[in-house]
Amino acid sequence: MSTTIQDIRKNELLDAAKSKFGFIPNVLKQMATSPAALEVYMGGQEALGNEGNRLTPEQRNFVQLAVSQRNGCDYCTAAHAAMGKMQGSNADDVKALATGNPIAEDAGGAYVDAAFLIMDKQGHLGGQDLSRLEAQGIDREKIYEIIGSIAIKQVSNWVNHIANTKVDAQFQ
């Protein structure tokens, strides 16, 4: 059996994940069933993490943790809670988000609230919504990065729902 371009790309992506995490997370193994889905997810996370983006790594992780918790994805909730701890995020804030509780606006709660507003309204934000977010320091650029974070989490959350992905020991 010959190796395809997709197989090569899949292996490159999984090797990159192993370099980043020290292991290949189970969700990425599941996504590798479709190299295209794996590439969308990993490429999206990489783009959202690029230097110069407006959301800090902590803010982005808080958004992705809260979205995962709201979507009922135990795998991603555990993974992002573990990442929050590794990033040095406030342990009480991480625990609150992982259990569906709010955190203070200045601790990142404004970004989580913005994500929930966007999800609840399916992106149909009106002038009042935008003014409220802008008053919290969340401009269009940040809104669009939050949308990107929501979209990427939908991919992994839904893959995990379908696959019933087991949480890696490293995330427990």
Short characterization:
The protein is an all-alpha fold and 172 residues long. 69% of the residues lie in helices and 0% in strands.
Overview of this structure, please?
The protein has 172 residues and is mainly alpha-helical. It has one domain: AhpD-like (Up-down Bundle), CATH 1.20.1290. The protein is built from 9 helices and no strands. It has helices at residues 5-21, 26-31, 35-48, 57-70, 74-87, 91-98, 109-120, 127-135, 140-163. The chain is globular, with a radius of gyration of 16 Å. It starts with a helix and ends in a 9-residue tail after the last helix.
At the fourth level of CATH, the homologous superfamily is: AhpD-like
Report the uncertain regions. none
User: What order do the helices and strands follow?
Assistant: HHHHHHHHH
Choose one word for the global shape.
Answer: globular
Which secondary-structure class do the elements indicate? mainly alpha
The CATH topology comes to: AhpD-like
**Number of spatially distinct domains:** 1
> Given this structure, which CATH class is correct?
Mainly Alpha
Radius of gyration: 16 Å
Distance between the termini: 38 Å
Fraction of residues in H or I helices? 55-70%
Strand content: under 5%
How would you characterize the largest beta sheet? none
Mean pLDDT: 96
